[in-house]
Amino acid sequence: MSFLELSRAVQFSDPLIAMRGLWWFFPVIATIHLLGLAVVGGAVLLVDLRLLGYGVRSQPAAQLVRDAERWLVGSLAVMLSTGMLLWMCFATKYYYLAFFWVKLAALLLVIAFTFTVRRRVAMDETSVSPLVSKLVAVTSLSLWTTVALGGRWIGFP
């Protein structure tokens, strides 16, 4: 089964047809998704601004990562689950949108980057050059911005 066939099957399944029939379903799920984005943004900014040399300088970056990570993971779980529901409502439409694929690729990259490279650099900030820390923070912010903008541009087919 191709991804397009899967998209059609999901979108036109009985539960999804019923959900789309509820006028409030999509706006409520989209609102929860955006609230998750706000929390992700805060958790990401807290650490990335610290890696850039701004923000909370009174705590080591490793402590900020530990403090922000539970918020990041929790809100990412909210965003992924609500994002799946949003996709399921209009799966075939999204299949043909380039911005959907850009968002998906950026999301996969930033999740991998955040929990490997960025985490490693922030946890051992003293052994990494300031230039590397800044490059990691800019990469992280760029990828998260691409995810957010990709999601916004999905609304403009």
- Strand composition percent: under 5%
Series of H and E elements: HHHHHHH
How many distinct domains?
A: 1
Helix tally? 7
Low-confidence stretches: none
Rounded average pLDDT: 93
Largest sheet: none
Mind telling me the C-alpha Rg? Answer: 18 Å
Helicity range of the residues?
Answer: over 70%
Alpha-carbon distance between the two ends = 26 Å
The number of E-state strands comes to 0
SS-based class = mainly alpha
Q: What's the overall geometry?
A: elongated
Description:
It is a single chain. The protein has one domain. It is built from seven helices and no strands. The chain has 157 residues and is mainly α. It is elongated, with a radius of gyration of 18 Å.
Task: Please give the structural blueprint.
Blueprint: H1 3-11, H2 14-20, H3 25-51, H4 61-89, H5 91-95, H6 98-123, H7 130-154
Offer a quick outline of the entry.
This protein has 157 residues and is mostly helical. It has helices at residues 3-11, 14-20, 25-51, 61-89, 91-95, 98-123, 130-154.
What are the defining features of this structure?
mainly alpha; 82% helix
